[in-house]
Amino acid sequence: MLYFFSFWCKQCAWSLCFIFLFFIKPGYGQNYTVGRHALGKLHDGKLQELSGIKQSILHSNMFWVHNDSGDSSRIFLIDNKAQLKGEYTLSGVDAKDMEDIAIFQRDGKSFVVLGDIGDNRAVRSEIMLYVFAEPEWIDGQTSYTIPQQAIQTIRLKYADKPRDAEAIFVDPLDGRAYLIAKRDFHVGVYPVDLHAKKAGNVQLLKQLVQLPLTFITAADISFDGRFLLLKNLTGVFLWERQNDESIRQLFTRAYIQLPYAPEAQGEAICFGTENSIFYTISERPFGLDSYLYRYNIDPIN
User: Fold this and answer.
1) What's the CATH class of domain 33-298?
2) Of 35, 64, 234, 294, which one is least surrounded by beta carbons within 10 A?
3) SS3 content of the chain, % helix, strand, coil (to 5)
């Protein structure tokens, strides 16, 4: 299967095009239909290079999103029409390349995980996850600050060598975060302990399993942990969990490649509150329009 990828080099401000020839493990997407509906178009100039999206737990019909490299340390809250509702600055955080966002629940509270995990040139000695309580939103207030003392920093380092990554999710069953590499021919999955007791220590990332996929740009798991989605620029891949199996066991089984029409520089994906619904949003390369899309997967219920 021939895949053509085109993406923007932000440092040099010119377009690079790469052709990758590789084979993907067969899925069974022909048994599924996926309907797409555009909910709204991005208009605000602050939302130029969206790389991550996650539906809010606290705020109904709203989503947390963020830009990737080149932006300051902030996330945004948008509604289900893609309209900007709030900007949240992370105090004391030096953003390098924020690439994905996740949410988990602990002791009845919801927490955001923001992944500063991008490394296009594979030179970073450490990458970071930032964990903080899901912020409040007050109708009419547009600017917020998350204080430094309210942010947990998890420092990470690969056991073998630096690599680029753009995808994270948090398993609601085992409570661990999982980071998925991007550029390896067969990408690796790396677990992260979110409950590390010694603050400041660097966690060593060790590969749990390899996947027969490449160029993974986003990941998400359903709120009940039953379904898992991965995305690259041209495809969306679905796993269904059986009997509360581990993430390692889940990834040893074949995935389903869902029907999907690629978006221009479409990198972000997340589940809705229902397992049959997922959302995507994209960057705005070359001034192209970007939309918040809702997808309905049939026959998932």
Assistant:
1) mainly beta
2) 35
3) 5, 50, 50
